[in-house]
Design a protein that fits this description.
heterodimer; A: mainly beta; four-stranded antiparallel β-sheet; 29 strands; disordered N terminus; B: about 220 residues; 5 helices; about 5% strand; elongated; coiled coil (chain B); GG3-like (chain B); Guanine nucleotide-binding subunit gamma 3 (chain B); G-protein_gamma-like_dom (chain B)
Chain lengths: ~375, ~220
């Protein structure tokens, strides 16, 4: 008995020693990386004589307000091809909108009202959503409604042991979807069978050590995705290798609330509760830029959601205080605040996303509305 | 059974032995501990591997150059200046999709120098003669937008909520919305509703809040 107990004690000692080694190696790695950070994006751009993007008061304007939700909007997603948007709200509904006409094409009452995320399938035929019920539900928009006029759930993806915080379809595949969860894992699902194809992270795996809040699949290589977590890290995953993350990205000092791939597929952005957005390189692991606007007081508003414009020059970031900054990614300057222009939202920006052709930005807010923003100015030919 | 008793040939059963303690009294705890150690040891090998790979990495400036080349080499419909020809009409596609929406801000400001409505959009809702009927756009209330030439401050009525700069309990907020009946402090954009803590995990319904108080408090952090 004593021998067994000492064995457990021995394990604890090994655990302590291993923790110390991990920390020491982490510090060493950090030091080595610092030596390689010879500049950041803004420093490089300035050295090349780049000038910031400038916006006039009517260059980026709200051209649609989508009204219909009766609760806070938590999530939105555009169809890849057509001009449709799906939104998820505290009112327990998903609404599918025609972004051109503002008309609602579907209002889906959810079996569980506590929805947190939604996504359009690549074909635009289905939508997925997830939330506190720990299930990702799939709805085929072409299904017949039931007697009460509700769209039935086509498939329920069950297996997470915590809330489903984010979901995204694998590009060009209506049958595969990735979810992130409060159970510290991400899961690749086969929607056809309803089964988990791969689990990324978890109790006995190398992965996130706290709730995973956001995911983004690489548009250039759909086998790679990145996740952001309450453990203050972002991790890059290869869908073919679930046992470990390809790379872990440190730097944030708060929850990583939002992650989004940069349009070139070699970088990704993050938005955090520490009030900063950052740009990381997936091949080197370097943190290339921090986007942070100093505030007068100490109350730094957390970033809720981010999106890049189609060229990557602009980074849109929603904040809990209602601000929606437009960052010039090259110069790291805030060039416009959509929270202070005409017809802006009346509350926190909770989600945002770009249309597939990059010509419009949609923002969702706790004020129950979605807004579509587009360029309304005059282009100079240079 | 009767036969065995009768013959008396079957040896008596051994007296029951005291039960041995289970071989692994803390089986789950030990395995768990072992798993934790194994994870850390694996992490160590990953970090060692990463340390080795860092040696051959290119400096950050290389990536920065790639980014600069990428963003400047691609046109962007949301950016004012582009190397391509004028493509401002894409915006009007949004405005003029199937039905022309109320262009009160844009159409009612004939002095705006930046907007040139294409012929494809016939907006019947526009009142080109009057600016007074337009609601005052919010940006007129912020100092950065006072230079706009569309309307003058005196011409339009500013939205009430935009012109209330402070709330009594917050030094920075610009709009106060009473949030929870049970909260002593107001909920404003700039500050969190203190009754809605704790923050993480983000889905916990906090102790002071129920559905009648903060219906959606589960995400209020």
């Amino acid at each position: 008995m004593e021998n067994k107990m000492s064995s457990v004690a021995e394990l604890k000692e090994r655990h302590m020693a291993a923790t110390e080694t991990v920390n020491a190696l982490g510090d060493k790695l950090k030091q080595k990386r610092l030596l390689l950070l010879d500049t950041d994006v803004a420093g490089y751009a300035r050295s090349q004589g780049k000038t910031p993007v400038t916006f006039g008061p009517t260059d980026l304007v709200c051209c649609r307000t989508l009204q219909g939700h009766t609760g806070k909007v938590y999530s939105l997603d555009w169809t890849p091809e057509k001009n449709r948007i799906v939104s998820a709200s505290q009112d327990g509904r998903l609404i599918v909108w025609n972004a051109l006409t503002s008309q609602k094409t579907h209002a889906i009452k959810l079996p569980c009202a506590w929805v947190m995320t939604c996504a359009f399938s690549p074909s635009g035929q289905s939508v997925a959503c997830g939330g506190l019920d720990s299930v990702c539900s799939i709805f085929n928009l072409n299904s017949q409604t039931d007697r009460d006029g509700n769209l039935p759930v086509t498939r329920m993806l069950s297996g997470h042991k915590g809330y489903v915080s984010s979901c995204q379809y694998v590009p060009d595949e209506d049958s595969h979807l990735v979810t992130s969860s409060g159970d510290q894992t991400c899961v690749l699902w086969d929607i056809t069978t309803g089964l988990r194809t791969s689990v990324f992270g978890g109790e006995f795996q190398s992965g996130h050590t706290a709730d995973v809040l956001s995911i983004s699949i690489n548009g250039s290589n759909s086998k790679m995705f990145v996740s952001g977590s309450c453990d203050s890290t972002a991790r890059l995953w290869d869908m073919r290798v679930a046992s470990r993350a390809v790379r872990t990205f440190h730097g944030h000092e708060g929850d990583v609330n939002s992650v989004k791939f940069f349009p070139d597929g070699n970088r990704f952005g993050t938005g955090s509760a520490d009030g900063t957005c950052r740009l990381f390189d997936i091949r080197t692991g370097h943190q290339l830029q921090v986007y942070y606007q100093p505030h007068g007081d100490n109350d730094v508003p957390p970033v809720t959601s981010i999106a890049f414009s189609i060229s990557g020059r602009l980074l849109f970031a929603g904040y809990t205080n209602g601000d929606c900054y437009v960052w010039d990614t090259l110069l790291a300057t805030m060039v416009l605040n959509l929270g202070f222009v005409h017809d802006s939202h009346d509350n926190r920006i909770s989600c945002l996303g770009l249309s597939a052709d990059g010509s419009a930005l949609c923002t969702g807010s706790w004020d129950t509305n979605l807004k579509i923003w587009a360029f309304g100015g005059h282009r100079r030919v240079i | 059974m009767g036969d065995s008793v009768g013959t008396g040939t079957v040896p008596p059963l051994p007296p029951p032995l005291p039960k041995s303690p289970p071989q692994y009294p803390d089986l789950y705890g030990k395995r768990r501990e072992l798993a934790k150690v194994q994870i850390l040891e694996r992490e160590i090998s990953f970090l060692e591997e990463e340390l080795r790979s860092v040696e051959g990495l290119l400096p950050a400036s290389r990536s920065c150059k790639e980014i600069a080349d990428f963003v400047t080499g691609k046109s962007d419909p949301l950016i004012p200046i582009t190397k391509k020809v004028r493509r401002s009409y894409r915006f009007w596609k949004w405005l003029c999709g199937i039905s022309c929406f109320n262009l009160s801000l844009i159409c009612c400001c004939p002095k705006c120098p930046h907007l040139h409505m294409p012929h494809c959009c016939k907006c019947n809702l526009c009142n080109l003669d009057s600016c007074i009927s337009c609601p005052m756009p919010k940006f007129h209330c912020s100092s950065s937008c006072l230079n706009t030439r569309c309307c003058k401050m005196s011409d339009c009525s500013c939205r009430l909520r935009c012109c209330i700069p402070k709330c009594p309990t917050c030094s920075v907020c610009f709009c106060c919305i009473p949030k929870c009946p049970t909260c002593s402090v107001c909920f404003c954009f700039a500050r969190r509703c203190t009754c809605c803590y704790p923050k993480s995990p983000k889905v916990n319904i906090c102790s002071c809040c129920d559905k009648s108080c903060c219906y959606s408090c589960y995400l209020c952090c």
